[in-house]
Predict the 3D structure of the following.
Amino acid sequence: MIPMEAQVEMPVTHDDVQVVAKPRRRTYTAEYKRRILKEADACRTPGQVGALLRREGLYSSNLVAWRRARAHGELAGLTPKARGRKPRPVDPRERKIAELERQLTRMTARAERAEALVELQKKLAAVLGRPVESEQP
């Protein structure tokens, strides 16, 4: 049990905070990865690889992933991969369909405005007492 005197809260200042507001993902160049792999492969005594990883601030999973990438292809495996969704190739038919749908929407709105205008003209003619010219012969 902690004595009451020890439970005094310390005021936190901005200098005490060590967490970055928005962390950034670390990226490594292919040259850096090659250099670290070369150094790791040169390690012979137990603990040297661990010391290398601690010195560079890396995890053993980085080393495993880089070795696996190197085995699959030197340049392709060690260059950083693009993150996020892969861009979908645009089908020209889909582009044409989207264009026609936008055109249909514009024309429909235009036809509705024209019909509303005709209705307004009919109401105005009825209020003024003028006969409406019929569309039928």
